[in-house]
Amino acid sequence: AQIRYSIPEELTRGAFVGNIAKDLGTDVAKLAAANLQVLSDSDSQYFSVNVNTGIIMVSERIDREQLCGQNPRCFLHLKLAIENPVEFYRIEVEILDINDNPPEFPSDEVSLRIYELASLGARFPIQPAQDPDVGTNTLQTYHLSANENFNLNVKARTDGGKFPELVLERALDRELRAFHHLVLTAEDGGSPPQSSKTRITIQVLDANDNHPVFDRPSYGARLVENSPLGTLVVKLNATDVDEGPNGDIRYSLSSHNSAALRQIFAIDEQTGEIRIQGSLDFEEATVYEIEVEAKDMGSPTMEEHCSVVVEITDVNDNAPEVILTSFSSSLSEDAPPGTVVAVIHVRDKDSGEQGKVQCHVSPDLPFQLRKDYEHQYSLLTSTRLDREHVAYYNVTVSASDLGSPPLSRHTILPITLADVNDNAPQFEQASYEVLVAENNPVGSVLVTVSAADPDSEQNSRLSYSILRAAGTDPGLDPTRYLSIHPTSGQVSAKLPFDYEQTTYLQFHVEVSDGGSPALRNRTLVHVFIVDQNDNAPQVHFPRAGEDSTTQFRISASTAPSALITKVVGIDADSGRNAWLSYHLMEATDPGLFSVALRSGEIRITRALQETDASAHELLVVIRDSGEPPLSTAVTLVVLVEEKGPEALQGSEARAADGGGLPMITLYLIVSLVLISTVSLVGLAALGVRCL
């Protein structure tokens, strides 16, 4: 939408321009809630808007002549931006001229020297007055004071300028009057009009009675902008019928020409060739009107004037300009498609098709351009964004004109995606299996669990905790035995493990990120307790006293190889650590008794003799197979007696007890084999899983 207002220049600050709420047909409260902003195409902010009333006001002094110079129409362009949803309104404010500048001559006095034989109708240009106003407020007419010899002619140029000329209407006679004093008044068309005056002093000279004459009253030429220096514009030709110095002509640029024009064009005073000595720019001026004078070398010199009109043809020499009206370099990765990232204004100083601009971005990027209206585009997101896939974009906006060949300009917009917590942490392993030797030191690290989160900063800061696994013994709380470092994931022992009490422990480790809301994940940890040889064997039979000594009797007639008793040991450890062996370390008669290595059976090796002692002391050591091995000892005192009924009954009873002892040994051997088999199978399964 576009709205147009008109205001005069030089209004005071706070002056009313228009009511944007009324002209848009909307409520003032809605404009205030929509964060109404005024954006100006110029460097100065000449206008402001009161969001509470919707009134546009003047905020800085506006000088039309400073803004637009001699252009007949002067406009300031604004854009109103409204958020939620984003809308733009283009406002065009026309600045109307007021008559605040009078015409002014370059000098208060002008001196002319005119030969007395100057022909009737001869013209003598006067430097014109300048009025920066435009339209009817600019210079409109000149008035010449009453006199007998001169009349005033006002020459109108193609650009609207008016140049006064004195026209000789009656022949001069120096002998009658050597000086003429005239007053020239310049007046504009304002209401009321303003004017200024200059005094003209004319000295009448004698002699040279013919002035140079151009072969045509005006010349025309056409050049393309950026023509090289030294390019010939036109060759002038003037003649003077006088002879000698009075007919020798010199060409020059008239003093009517501006200093800027003199820097662009130069004339050869001998040949009359006008050439380029500065740069031509169609965007600065499309037409140049050069005032040229030809003077003879007489005394006094006589001169003639003509105009050269040079038209400039535009070429495509200006690349488009890309101006960011609004830009957000940071964009949330969950921004929906169609989100406005930047508002871009483009312009090209060339004219016609060469000044039309088209913009585009790479189709490989998740962004697109939308043309809002002429010279303005919006950069939008075209698809969903994912910071974990691409975190940073350099979006190149290419602007090209329609010239031949076309010119283009590329602007890079760096866009960083802000993270949102859209990824849960992931463990490196679905489960962990740990072998821990019992009696481990307190504080030792058993395992380190590790998880990763592709989010960034706070959303990727992880925290670990231990939870009881479902289906486990409620009394077996893992937090009693274990602790976990909340940031490193190191699981440490709070208590030493005892294989004889706990052989296996299972628990969950939960990891949560620092997002809001936090995302979580879990992994299962299996802890297998490995037995250590930390229990020495114990004597289960025979029962010994506090001094580890026990007594029993045998008959003196006991046959060789007869079983007299059996030592039975037990070990709380398992596996190889509970595999026991029996050794006869000391004996009163070492050759009389023997101990079975695995069963602990004690037998007599030969028949007893009368010379043998009546009491024998045996030291039996029970040793396990751990590393290092642990052992215990028992002392047996064997008393030899003559066979009697009581003794025989005691022997038979002991023999009966001894008959049951090998079954215990069998049970121990079977248990050892089973435990070893299960351990080997478990280790094999663990190895396969690790592979």
UniProtKB/TrEMBL annotation:
Residues 6-105, 106-214, 215-322, 323-427, 428-539, 546-664 form the Cadherin domain. GO terms for molecular function: calcium ion binding. GO terms for biological process: homophilic cell adhesion via plasma membrane adhesion molecules. PROSITE patterns: CADHERIN_1, CADHERIN_2. The chain crosses the membrane at residues 664-688. Keywords: Calcium, Cell adhesion, Cell membrane, Glycoprotein, Membrane, Repeat, Signal, Transmembrane, Transmembrane helix. SMART domains: CA. It is found in: Cell membrane. GO terms for cellular component: plasma membrane. SUPFAM superfamilies: Cadherin-like. It is a single-pass type I membrane protein. CDD domains: Cadherin_repeat (cd11304). InterPro entries: Cadherin-like_dom, Cadherin-like_sf, Cadherin_CS, Cadherin_N, Protocadherin/Cadherin-CA. This is Protocadherin gamma-C3. The gene is Pcdhgc5_1.
